[in-house]
Amino acid sequence: MSRGEKDKYTETQKRKAEHIEQSYAAKGIPEAEAEARAWATVNKQSGGGEKKGGSGQRKSPAAKSAARKDSARRAVATRKGHSPNQAPARSSGSLDRLTKDELMQRAARQGITGRSRMRKAELIDALRVA
Asked: Which stretches does the entry tag as region Disordered (predicted)?
């Protein structure tokens, strides 16, 4: 919609803008300013000319139900202490196979100080001692 076109607004929105514009004009505000303020008010209150669906309005009831179930599953997994998209942590016997990021996470959970400056081998040693 190009600037100035009001074709996409409902009749109610147009009437509201006209009423607001008259109110501003009665207060002595110039016509162009009154019109701009009126349409700004209508846009702020109703979201503009083209009506768009709100949150979730385009989903079917089945899709909404599936999304809620997925959200609940992720919430339960988070409460149990691991991300639902992340594989469970490996046992401490295989520290050599973990990535440095995984070792850093383990070191953080165990409260190992100085871990941010450690190399991978140093992290492994510190985790074995802890």
From this structure: 1-118
> CA–CA distance from 16 to each of 23, 33, 50 (Å)?
11, 16, 16
CA distance 121 to 100: 9
What is the pLDDT tens value at each position of the chain, 130 positions in all?
A: 336 677 778 888 889 999 999 999 999 999 989 999 988 888 888 777 766 555 556 777 788 888 888 888 877 777 766 555 555 554 556 888 899 999 999 999 999 999 999 999 999 999 998 8
Query: Under a CB-based contact definition with an 8 Å cutoff, are residues 70 and 64 in contact?
Result: no
Cα distances from 124 to residues 15, 27, 98, in angstroms, run: 72, 75, 9
Nearest to 86, CA basis, from 76, 75, 94, 78: 78
Q: What is the DSSP letter of 60?
A: -
Q: Whole-prediction pTM value?
A: 0.37
Q: Give the C-alpha separation, 37 to 35, whole Å.
A: 5
DSSP 86: S
For residues 41 and 13, the answer to whether their CB atoms sit within 8 Å is no
